[in-house]
Amino acid sequence: MGEKMALILQLLLTSRKIGIKNEEIVNYLKEHGLKSHRKEVGELVHDMNDFFTLFLGYPLIHGKPKRGYVIENEYYEDGELQLLVDAILFNKDASAKEKEALLKKLLSFSSIYQKERLSMMPLLKTEQPFSLILNLTTILHAIDEHKNITFNYIDYAISNYHPVEITSKNGNGKTKEDYNVSPYRIYLDNNHYYLIGYFSKRKTNLSMYRIDRMRYVRRIGGVYVDIQDQYDLAGFITKRFHMFASGEEVQLTFSFKGVLLREVVSRFGHTIAVKKLKEDWYQASVDHVLMNDGLKMWFLMQGANVHVDEPITLKEEIEQDLKKALSLYQK
C-alpha cells in the first residue's frame, strides 16, 4: 500500500496534465507492476490526505469533477523554496554531491511546475576533501550528548607554485596533529560554519575552529569540560565574528556621495540621521556603533566616495592604512 501511495504522489507531482483521473492512476500503477482499481485509488488518496492533514494542516490532494485529482497548494511557497534552494547552491563548503542530495530531498514534494518557476543557478561540479554534512552531524551529536571530538586541523603551504593542505601540529591529543575539543556551539558567518569549544591548551579562553578546515572528525571518550557558563558567548561571538569588535560603542559621523546611499542604508539601517551638504554630498550620524575592523574595512572599500568625520581615532586609522596602501604602489 505504501508503494502505491508513493507512486500516486509521484504521478501527481511530475505529470504536466492538470488533473489525473482514477483510470489513469490505475494504469500507472499497472505499469509499475501493481494491481488496483478505482475504489482503491479513492481510498488511498483519502488515507494520504489524512496523513497530509496531520503533517501539513491541510489535505494536499483534491478531487475535481471531470478533471480528476490535483495538487493545488505546494508544500512550500515559491519564495520559501527559492530561499532554501539558494542557501544550498551558494554554500561555499558543501560538495556538489552533497548539494545534489540535499536538493533532491528539498524538492521531493514540489510539482514539476514549481520546480520550473524557480531560478536555479547551475550547480558547479566542485569536490571537497571532506564532508561538510558528516562534520556537522558528528559535531551536533557530540554537542547534544556532551561528548568530546577529535580532528585534524589544516593550514596551507605553497608547493610547486600552488597552495596545498598541511596538517597543523599544535594539537593536544595522542599526536601533535590531533585536536581534542569539548564542543559547545556551531555558528554560521559569511557562509562558513565555525565551532566554538574548549581546547585544553587554551584553558582561559574559548576556542574557535572553521569546520571546513577540520578533517577526520569523530567522537571520542574522556571528560567533557563544560566551562561555557563562565563566558559571555554572545559577547565572544560579537568580537570574533564581527571582525574583531573592540566592544567600544561610538557616535559615528561620516560624509558620503549620493551614489552610496543604498549601501549606507544597507549597512547602518533606516534610522540613521542624514543631512544634505553641498552638491551630491551628505552627512550621516549613527549612534551606538561598535568599533571593529570590519567597520574600518567598509569605509576603506568605498574609496573616494566617503569620508569619516568622527570619531577622530577611526579617521586617523583609516588615514594611516591609506598611506600604507599608497606606499606599496609608489615603490
From TrEMBL:
<dbReference type="InterPro" id="IPR051534">
    <property type="entry name" value="CBASS_pafABC_assoc_protein"/>
</dbReference>
<protein>
    <submittedName>
        <fullName>WYL domain-containing protein</fullName>
    </submittedName>
</protein>
<dbReference type="InterPro" id="IPR026881">
    <property type="entry name" value="WYL_dom"/>
</dbReference>
<feature type="domain" description="WYL">
    <location>
        <begin position="157"/>
        <end position="218"/>
    </location>
</feature>
<dbReference type="Pfam" id="PF13280">
    <property type="entry name" value="WYL"/>
</dbReference>
